[in-house]
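Structure ticket #2291
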Amino acid sequence: MTDDAVPASELYTDEFAADPYPAFAQLRADKPVCPVSSPRFDSYLITRFDDAKAALTDPRLSKDLYGPDQHYLRIFGPNSEGLNKNMLNSDPPEHTRLRRIVSQAFAPRRIEALRPRVAQIVDDLLDKIVPQGQSELMHDFAIPLPMRVISELLGIPEADHDRVLDWTQVIRTSGSSGRSPQEDRAAVQEAQLRLHHYFADLVQAKRAHPADDMISALIEACDHDGKLSEPELVTTSFLLLFAGHQTTADFIGNATVALLTNPDQLELLRASPELLPSAIEELLRFDGPLPVASPRIATEDVEYQGVSIPRGAIVGVVINSANHDPAHFADPDRLDLCRERGPHIGFGHGVHYCLGVSLARMEAQIGIGALLRRLPELRLGVPVAELRRLPAASPFRGLLELPVRFTA
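Resolution: structure written out below.
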């Protein structure tokens, strides 16, 4: 790591957690490829749009964390391999094989057929909220909506939804629980193990009694087609669960705050609900739930913006910074729902482009549209500065709580 590396403790502050965009702007201007040092691992952050887009397709930046160097140990820690060895952390041709198996379940026409069920889940959740005049929207709506949808797709029995959600939330909220770092790591490792065992048991149950769900289809690919190994079956199930609800939940929370703190845009969307599909894209560009793409490893010395990134270094492509690059977006720190739809990279770019993009867009459109329609005079329940967010160093940008009020 170079002498001009920025200590993670100086970058990932409480101010950064509340609003990282001033720090991103400074990095784009002064250190567009920024070395960051931390006790767990060092990394290089790529922050400008053109560089970020190039890095996301650079074959020298590998997603395979499970080679001889076992980079996953530095990034995820012990007990991680059982859940994280999947298509997200692999390169072609392995990634191509695994993605092809899963992609049929996320075909746009198949996802569109889910629209009535998603709308029903949204209405069921809001039916409980509407009479109260207030809500903690993350707990009551933003998290359970995508969690219920992906659980039903996978075939997780309804009786297990709450405990599976509890385990995922232990992982999601790591660093914000009030536990000591040692206790927090132990809790995360325990949740990882429980999820691994749960999916291993669920696979066996589905193997004995298959159903019309995604895990049963994956078992078919494993047992009859030989396209999937047993460990891949378990880790793919976990990836689909976590990726299928985490970022969508955080996005709904972020988007709600963005609208409530930009009342002119909120009123515009209320008056013109036909803008909702394009508004979702602008809201994702404005404050996406995945600030940094999942880690890459330099397989050889590479250079970006005159900065040499050595072989073996961890590289983070800062999506949320790239999506605020003024070289590509006019007045990028302003929410503009009428912005001409630009090439944001909120869903990634290249072969790792988000597989569940159609589902995420549909859930966001239905969910946010229903919030605005069914919760009159929706407003924050606390000043925006008092909102509790995930820790600054979290891989996700989201809220721990989102208290709101409205007219019952």
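Closing remark: The CA atoms of residues 302 and 385 lie 40 Å apart.
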